[in-house]
Design goal:
Layout (H helix, E strand, L loop, with lengths): L14 H4 L31 E7 L2 H8 L5 E9 L8 H4 L7 E8 L6 H12 L7 E2 L2 E2 L5 E4 L3 H16 L10 E2 L5 E3 L7 H4 L4 H17 L14
Helix pairs in contact: 2-7, 4-7
Length: 232
């Protein structure tokens, strides 16, 4: 995580404090963009639980958004893309481990499909056109990535990215990479439920709480006010 962009200064809610980056420039928070639903989705099945692993910048906000989604039974912050022995915060923050800050989303496919999970990812969670960064955080550890659990998930993700690019939903091409065969490793305990525990921190207030509002307005049928927490 960008150390300067994550400094916690309780009570300071000025935009200049909240959005300052390493080079001193002001980084504007991107607003949500409503995107069309995927034309290709997983077929209905009998399973009651499925896992999606996604990376879209700082895992605090990604986890926070999915904790407010109906049908999600757990959202765990962690690391994916690198080796097990480097899956720790201080090493991942250096940007050389291959890991991305990621979130393992466990959901009930009878309530919300994998395609709908991805629709939230592309519209509310982050800006998928940014390469190796999100907002004030810069580095490959903040890249946009999907880590499919199987061939069906990979096919849905590939088809969806192609659909959105072909429709020119965004002004530039989607930078999200699909990275199959990567293990997920849970992050340290102090990163779990971070948004819920620290709603007044400047970083959370400026970068992440607006995403919860975006979820509520863009996906009102899927929004739930009470989040499902890891430490419940």
């Amino acid at each position: 995580m960008s150390k300067f962009s994550r400094i916690l200064v309780p009570g300071l809610i000025g935009v200049a404090v909240l959005a300052v980056t390493l080079n001193g420039k002001i980084a504007a928070r991107d607003s949500a963009k409503a995107v069309p639903a995927p034309l290709v989705d997983e077929p209905a099945g009998s399973q009651t639980s499925e896992i999606a692993v996604l990376a879209g910048g700082c895992f605090w906000g990604v986890q926070g958004v999915y904790q407010h989604v109906k049908g999600v039974t757990n959202a765990l912050s962690g690391y994916a893309g690198g080796a097990q022995n480097t899956a720790e915060y201080e090493r991942v923050s250096g940007g050389s481990t291959g890991h991305a800050e990621s979130v393992q989303v466990t959901f009930d496919p009878r309530v919300i499909t994998y395609g709908k999970v991805l629709q939230i990812f592309f519209s509310v969670v982050h800006d998928p056109t940014q390469l190796n960064r999100q907002g004030p955080d810069v580095g490959t550890q903040y890249r946009s990535a999907i880590f499919p659990a199987n061939a069906d998930q990979a096919n849905v993700a590939q088809a969806y990215i192609a659909q959105l690019n072909q429709a020119r939903v965004f002004n530039t091409a989607i930078a999200t990479k699909i990275e199959p065969g990567r293990a997920f490793y849970p992050a340290e305990g102090y990163h779990q439920d971070y948004l819920d525990h620290n709603p007044t921190s400047p970083y959370i207030a400026y970068n992440d709480l607006p995403k919860i509002d975006d979820l509520k307005h863009v996906f009102p049928d899927l929004y739930r006010a009470k989040p499902v927490l890891v430490g419940r």
